């Protein structure tokens, strides 16, 4: 089987679907890797690194024409969809629930689409294929760095001969994967961190009693009597 790695065409996307370090396992499994010219350039992976790892550098046309499976980061553009053929497999972040029209186009062309953002993370064997948590982790880290750059002052408490600079107060909205990483990063930079969850609280419903029965009483908080020794 031939696996094709095309260059990402979405403006601003610098990632690449496969890095040279990951090719060893794929080659050991008997797969042939085709990498488009300069596919990893924006991610600091030159073509020479892929060739040293055993990949073959090809043109854009050859990637789509020869590959049995195409791996991407972002979903394909209309021009890339037109290059796909029946029987090919496409793996990437396809967001099928957000863009069902794209899924219909791929189905009409006979393409098998595998969206990594739709893999159920609750399965233990799917943990290694989770792409959302890793990217959310990076997003939380980067968000604090961007905020520190835009803040224009210091994050930590600094005491100098000229005076004292108070630490910055940082509010983190959301305490998911990205939020927890943002909290840790802001604290490491010396900021005073406050966090707030965006999930609404659930209201507790009163328990209903059967008709004719007395309402249930809360369990007693009185301690149980100590056991007595038989005489």
Fold and architecture overview:
The relative contact order is 0.08. The radius of gyration is 27 Å and the shape is elongated. Helix content is 29%, strand content 19%. The protein is an alpha/beta fold and 231 residues long. The chain has two domains: 2-118, Rossmann fold (3-Layer(aba) Sandwich), CATH 3.40.50; 132-196, NAD(P)-binding Rossmann-like Domain (Rossmann fold). The strands form three sheets. A six-stranded parallel β-sheet has the order 3-2-1-4-5-6. The chain has a two-stranded antiparallel ribbon with strand order 7-8. The chain has seven helices and ten strands. The longest helix has 20 residues, at 132-151.
CATH architecture descriptor name of the largest domain: 3-Layer(aba) Sandwich
CATH topology of the largest domain: Rossmann fold
Task: Compute the number of helices.
Answer: 7
| Beta-strand residue percentage | 15-25%
Order of helices and strands: EHEHEHEHEHEHEEEHE
Number-wise, the strands total 10
Measured as a percent range, the helix fraction is: 25-40%
How would you sum up the major sheet? 6 strands, parallel
The CATH class designation of the largest domain is Alpha Beta
Radius of gyration: 27 Å
Q: What's the arrangement of strands in the largest beta sheet?
A: 3-2-1-4-5-6
Global morphology: elongated
**Gap from first CA to last CA:** 83 Å
Structural class: alpha/beta
Mean pLDDT: 88
- Name given to the CATH homologous superfamily of the largest domain: NAD(P)-binding Rossmann-like Domain
Instruction: List low-confidence stretches.
Output: 224-231
What is the number of independent domains? 2
């Amino acid at each position: 089987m031939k696996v094709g790695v095309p260059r990402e065409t979405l403006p601003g996307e610098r990632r690449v679907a496969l890095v040279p370090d990951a090719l060893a396992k794929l080659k050991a499994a008997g797969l042939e890797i085709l990498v488009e010219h300069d596919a990893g350039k924006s991610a600091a992976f030159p073509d020479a690194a892929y060739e040293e790892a055993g990949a073959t550098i090809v043109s854009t046309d050859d990637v789509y024409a020869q590959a049995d499976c195409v791996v991407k980061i972002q979903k394909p553009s209309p021009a890339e969809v037109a290059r796909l053929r029946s029987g090919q497999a496409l793996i990437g972040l396809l967001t099928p629930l957000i863009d069902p029209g794209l899924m219909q186009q791929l189905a009409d062309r006979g393409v098998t689409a595998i969206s990594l953002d739709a893999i159920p993370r609750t399965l233990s064997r799917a943990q290694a294929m989770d792409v959302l948590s890793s990217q959310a982790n990076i997003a939380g880290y980067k968000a604090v760095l961007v905020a520190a750059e835009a803040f224009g002052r210091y994050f930590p408490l600094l005491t100098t001969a000229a005076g004292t600079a108070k630490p910055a107060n940082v509010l983190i909205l959301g305490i998911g994967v990205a939020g927890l990483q943002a909290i840790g990063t802001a604290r490491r930079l010396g900021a005073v961190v406050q966090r707030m969850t965006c999930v609404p609280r659930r209201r507790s419903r009163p328990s209903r009693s059967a008709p004719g029965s007395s309402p249930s009483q809360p369990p007693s908080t009185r301690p149980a009597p100590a056991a007595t020794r038989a005489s």
